[in-house]
UniProtKB/TrEMBL annotation, chain A:
This is Sulfate ABC transporter permease. InterPro entries: MetI-like, MetI-like_sf. It is a multi-pass membrane protein. The chain crosses the membrane at residues 43-63, 126-147, 159-180, 192-214, 257-283, 303-325, 362-385, 421-442, 454-476, 543-569, 590-611. GO terms for cellular component: plasma membrane. Belongs to the binding-protein-dependent transport system permease family. It comes from Haloarcula rubripromontorii. It is found in: Cell inner membrane; Cell membrane. Residues 1-34 are annotated as: Disordered. The keyword Transport applies. Keywords: Cell inner membrane, Cell membrane, Membrane, Transmembrane, Transmembrane helix, Transport. Its main location: membrane. PANTHER family: INNER MEMBRANE ABC TRANSPORTER PERMEASE PROTEIN YDCV.
From TrEMBL, chain B:
One of its GO terms (molecular function) is thiamine binding. This is ABC transporter substrate-binding protein. Residues 34-49 have a biased composition (Low complexity). It holds the Pfam family SBP_bac_8. It comes from Haloarcula rubripromontorii.
Amino acid sequence: MARDVDGGAAGAGSDDSETATETASRPSGEQGRSVRTTIERRGVVGLAVATIALLLGIFYYPVATVFVDSVLVDGRWTAQVFVSILQDPFYFGELARLLSGEPVRAVIESIRSPDRRLGVIGFTTYQAALSTVASVALGLPAAYLLARFEFPGRRTLRSLTILPFVLPSIMVAVGFVATFGQNGTLNAVLGALGLGEVNLLFTLEAVVIAHAFYNAPLVARVTTAAWESVDASAVETARSLGASPLRAFRDVVAPQLVPSVLMGAALTFVFTFSTFPIVLALGGFQLATVEVFVYRLIRDLEYAEAAALALIELGISLGLLYAYLRYEARHTVQSRGIRPLPRRPLTPPSFSIRELLPRAGLAAYAVVALAVFVAPIASMVLASLSGPEGLTLANYRFLVDRQTTGASFQVQPWDAVRNSLLFGVASLAVALPMGVVVAVLTTRDYRGRKVVDAVAMAPLAVSGIVVGLGLLRGLVFGFEIGGTRLAVGGGLAIVAAHAVAGYPFVVRTVAPGLEGIDRTLVESARALGAPRARALLDIELPLVWPAVVAGAAFAFAISIGEFSATIVLASGTNQFTMPIAIERFIGRRLGPATAMGVVLLVVTSASFLLIDRLGGDDVGF
Amino acid sequence: MDRRSFLTAAGATVSASVAGCAGLGGGGEESSTDESTGTGTSTGDAGGADETLVVGTYSAFVDSPSTSPGAWVKQRFEEEFDARLIWQTPSNEVNHYIERRNAGVDIEADMYLGLNTDHLVRVDENLDDGLFAEVGDVAGQDDIKPGLQFDPDGRAIPYDTGYISLVFDGTATTAPETFDGLLADEHAGDLITQNPASSATGRAFLLHTVKQFGPDGYLDYWSDLQDNDVRVLGSWSDAYSAWSGGEAPMVVSYSTDQVFADRNDANMEKHQIRFLNDQGYANPEGMAVFEGADTPDLAREFMGFLLRPEIQGEIAVRNVQFPATESADLPADYAELAQEPPEPVTFGYDELRGSVSGWISDWERQFASN
């Protein structure tokens, strides 16, 4: 696959290497191909170059304009901003003393002492670790249910697992207060059962549960997919060799699930590491994370410290992603399941312990899932239907009134829905090819490809406000060439921000599939004369189609839910999306905002069902 | 045709070919092409019906779900002045204009409505060249209540003010009369306030404690408050919705709380106001004209218009704040519901400049230290 290596290298290189690749990929003695094959032959390289140029233009260059503030202070290059953050116990706790030159032993002692300081970054890491554990614990049983059991509505349920992803934090906060608050549903149920009250709000637990609400579905989705691609014959072979079901699971199934579980965990960690609105709405300022301070510093225009802090945050997240990618590279399962494990009916076929026990476990899990996932969403819907005098449609009437009589400078519900869908489709159209191309580039063999992979994942770990600010300065304000200012309109910048945030999901869903494809299939196609692009389109992509669809769903979801970059970039009400409309409709009463939240729920649920249906029956993620 | 609509039209065609659709229309009149940097060569002669005033403001002024004065003000102003009023509500508020000025990009608004003292401090600390021009003569300026003027350089003129106070549920507790009372055991876990770095009410409450205990003493007071389980949430709406949900009986909010409660026929017993130490922290909101505005004269006329008694009264009611002038025409029941503190307190521009970010940052470091 030497030519594939060249393709990857061309992507990372310049225009010169494109011609080099072209020459290299032309077998000697073969001349005079048709224009079509020339395009196909150069297609992958061309796409790679275009993708990299696009990434540089809409992500790396804009974001660099922000990050450069941390090292270029008042026109001078300096590392002072970083040094002072690294040595600041407020950010790094006891570790900061290490960085300011104190002896290792003394620092280790103080870390082991009970009154150690974690620092903001230490605490952020701690809560992200807890949130990750909670998300995995809540996500795995859901994956077990979705992958191993058959029941009516299973596909719909699987499509909807992506929903929490798009819910704006304010809606989640409303739902959580109504569910877990002092006067919430949980306490009402506990009271009715004669159990004591719990007060979860304003605690770390509340934040961790909310993070699990957002991320457990992600873990469930990726794990379900891995479980569904376990080859049944391998399990049957193990069983026929005398392995107990438990043993067969441990030796055959589990090793194939672990990479996916770890991927879900790594993504959860990265997301919860850069969390902020949920912490301040449900926990309180004493639980402030790094991102809270990044936001504050940007708001006060203290860009040097803000950028340095955001870079440190990015470094930690990227380090973790890199570690995961290294692991993934060593543990890819070649040639995936041809025959998936048969699903069992949810109603037990017999009343043996072996049949009843897992179902009893799932029933217990269902109770927890109802409390964590369903109750907050139901509370939100209920809040949208409530007024001072009980049930009312007044909040929905507000939406209709605003649409029909609102002024042009006010946010109008339908326009927000339309903009969300437009931006969603447009960013999907950009993110999907980008993601596929990056996935192709990162599944070829060359040195340092995990570094390339990690760099390509960077948008996952850069906070939306940094991306937004970078795009604002780099593209919307534009730059002058010969006295003319070239600039990109707010709408296009929003699509760029959404596409950049969404394509890593396409990469992460498509790449493992591409890696798992039997190489001989592609090699035969190439040997028979198919150009690289045609092999990709005709052989590889159809084989991983469910993963492509899954990536598309994620990219679309990211676009629908994105808030912070959009609000920085939107230059008028005609660019406001559903999450922004929700934020604008918040007043003394949350009614109108919750009604808009329900509109978002309905519109996005319908979209996900539609997207998943396009994937056929074997939708991967 | 005045310069701006020409630019908009020209910008639309040029930028469409360069970069696709810019966000035209609506609240944002963004033209994607500019004639070099904002040198502000206003034509000044564009009198008559064509004249356009672009006013930047915060979104709640024109677009809150209950009531907001924006649409009404626009209609009245356009009827009378034969001019077009365009509201612009950038989500970064004043930062949007600071960013543009810093980047050398033309500022497309003539004036800004909704400046706080600390906005002005931020503007001056981050821009060497001014963002706002000295305002000069504006009709009705003499009617402004003494003590609300917050700009020593005469750029910003107040048009309304809020007083930050405690709002408490009288069926669940009785709020203490003093700051020290908040430290009593019986009020443990009773108070919700907001992050002073990102919320106007949270910031006002923090500044009130600085006023009360001094820059050397406020951190000790907060340490005691923290021991008594005060909750600091992110935004006013986070705090207010947690309070409405019964999570705690007291919240830091506005002393106009009952105006809203009354509109929704809420139980007034649940919406009680308390001014700690008989003081309320005043948060005046001002307006100022951008340097290089296209229509500075029209902007000044607009300011005078806003200070008229009948307009002041209407803005107060619709924005649920107090008028800035003594002469405002307020409805009879407004005074019953909206309470003014016996003693308004506030920090002036000179006291905040150079201090406010330090106070907040010190507070953050103490409160969130893990």
